[in-house]
Amino acid sequence: MTTFRDALAAGPLVLDGGMSNELEAQGHDLNGTLWSARLLRDAPDAITAVHRAYFAAGAQVAITASYQATYDGFARVGITRAETTTLLQRSVYLAREAAAGTGWVAASVGPYGAMLADGSEYRGDYGLTVAELTRFHRPRLEALAEAAPDVFAIETIPDLREAEAVLTALDGLGIPAWLSYSIRGTTTSAGQPLTEAFALARSSDAVVATGVNCAPAADTAPALALITGLPGVAYPNGGGVWEPAARSWLGAEDEIADLAPSWLAAGAALLGGCCRVGPAEIKKLAARVSASTAG
């Protein structure tokens, strides 16, 4: 049976785009601390529809709607631990349903800062130890692992301490992962050199690729050029700057498909989009990837 590692080696693979922007385009209100994760309980069919739209556009990998789904975050709004486990696993099942046997499912694991819903994933340094962050991440990883995703998408990680914690929490789960960082130029959001961040990713046998996401598109290729020893991951935002107080993106949008050849040249094997990137952009990106790798 072909595994995700096998498919990645034969790559490149096209990832999907932003979940939240497509849910908002459907008319769903995502205000609140749970963001798109709320719809795992309230409107799961809407999540499946978004996954299907991205597969129809040419994506080969669906990233689940579990980025902001955590035991702590759900508990704050009165959702029990048992129901949280159900919702986490539902995120994988919804993506699997949409994949219809032809696509891959990546279980999203967002940073601690996503649960805070205050933009901390673009700053890092929460004042927590590696051990505390490991205890935060491990139960969610265990719940998602039971639903058998093809890979974990450890994404938007802002600093090395949290990266170390998540890699520790991955131990023994038997599922590969990619590890992607939120960045500022050639450093993590917390200011550490990306060369150190990518070296940390290489230290884990579970990690099959590393790179950046939820980053400015123009910063993506220079960041990928710093990766050694692993395939690259590139799924930046579609332009603008996130304003946490307004919970909205400000500024013009980018045409990320035009940058795909430069990402491939820099070693990217997983390419897609994050916030403000929809199915239309993924369709263009998939076409550029196909044209760049033809023959």
From TrEMBL:
Sorted UniProt keywords: Metal-binding, Methyltransferase, Transferase, Zinc
Amino acids binding Zn(2+): 214, 274-275
Keyword hit for Transferase: yes
PROSITE patterns: HCY (PS50970)
Cofactor note: Binds 1 zinc ion per subunit.
Gene Ontology process terms (BP): methionine biosynthetic process; methylation; S-methylmethionine cycle
GO MF term (any one): zinc ion binding
Pfam families xrefs: S-methyl_trans (PF02574)
Cofactor(s) the protein requires to work: Zn(2+)
All copies of domain Hcy-binding, residue ranges: 1-289
PANTHER family: HOMOCYSTEINE S-METHYLTRANSFERASE-LIKE ISOFORM 1 (PTHR46015:SF1), ZGC:172121 (PTHR46015)
NCBIfam families linked to this entry: PRK09485.1
The protein's name in its UniProt record: Homocysteine methyltransferase
Organism: Streptomyces griseoruber
